[in-house]
Amino acid sequence: MNKELYSPLIFELSREGRKGYSLPDYKYDDGDIVIPDILKRAEAPELPQVDELTVVRHYTNSSNNNFGVDTGFYPLGSCTMKYNPKVNESMVALSGIASLHPMQPVSTVQGALRVYRNLEKALCEIGGMAEFTLNPFAGAHGEYTGLMIIRQYHLSRADEARRRVIVPDSAHGTNPASAAMAGFDVVEVKSMPDGTVDVEDLCSKLDDTIAAVMMTNPNTVGMFEKNIPQIAEAVHSAGALMYYDGANLNPMLGIARPGDMGFDVMHINLHKTFSTPHGGGGPGAGPVGVRPGLEKFLPNPRVVEREDGSLDIDFGTDAFGRVSGWLGNFSVLVKSLAYIMTLGAEGLAKVGPLATLNANYIMHSLSDLYMQPISGPCKHEFVFDGLRNKSTGVTTLNIAKALLDHGFHAPTIYFPLLFHESLMIEPTETESPETLDAFIKVMREIAEDAISNPDKIKNAPYTTPISHPDEDEAALTPVLTYAELCKKQI
Ligand SMILES: *Cc1c(COP(=O)(O)O)cnc(C)c1O
Fold it and tell me: Is residue 276 lining ligand 1, measured as CB closer than 6 Å?
């Protein structure tokens, strides 16, 4: 640990008697309101005692140690770390939205329900689906919900033998995990040398025990799966359904629709494609859409339109129940609708081509130094298999760390698992040519240093508070509390 860059915890800054507030000495018990003893804590909470300036400096300095889309380029493949327009934040901060309570009578939340319904309709239009639920909290949660919908569909037809789901080997790890969570066994399908799914291998695995095929398009190596209509036909005639992992919808936005390609159920990562801040575990939203005929399998509760034009919340009986406490991560939904409405249909259709252009620009500018395992143009993201020069001993991990010294977030590394030294880059559409050029320049310098002075790259980063944590030790004996940290005396 670089001690100079270590910022102390606010508890370490605490000094007896210091305070940063000034409140009237008011006791509820003195007035009309009496708080029952059972609701009072026996002892005062242990809070840090700090003056206002210390608090301000502490949090400002802590936030400066954080890296985000607002501080620098963030080419984290598969995560679509695009800029989050600030107008979205203004919309969600409107008091009529920020102070809502889920238990309010429906007559008082008609506007909020309209937001929900309008977003649902926009997503139906974008995905080519009949209906959406906005309730799931994340992409993985959407996958689970979608697979439960597929399970209900098969059970409703007394087709109980369908207990297996086909997943390509290039899929995001959440795909097999969600299938397992939903009670299915996973059948893996291989990829071809061009990165797309092996259709022959897939078709050979179709039988009456297969419930669904999960596909991502463009897939996680950034290749467009051209054979979807052919695959969909084979899957449907085998009695199974097509599931679309919509985490990579960004390059297709307003241009191609999963529903038109033959997908039956899909999820969308609002926090990726529809530009709401994410990372570090949340917040997210993974709405799930279904094609006509599957609406009744969507989870409860649902927002429904009554005959008089008003909106209501329906708790239904057909579906398998709830997947979230209420109607989803409402703040994320509001931000996504704001994003869709500010771009409009025309703006949305520009997202994909720009994201694709940016990705190809970087790929093309670096492929003489970095190993490009799949040839041809990519969509919104691409994968390098480490450096072209394999004799340097410099790994993808070293390259990712060296980037940190230059103010760039690292790309996704060691995913997808198809290659040993995967380095997965997704610039997104919101980056300027200057930023892309600056990134390319640094990536080229790293590749050149890897040959002339490999130790320089292997020992990077030099400017971050933590440079080379012992990852095995961190995984085996994680330090999760302050008390543990003190014991370790690092
Ligand atoms: C991000 C991602 C997911 C999972 O989404 P979360 O919101 O992180 O749960 C699934 N599939 C792909 C291809 C992804 O990129």
Answer: no
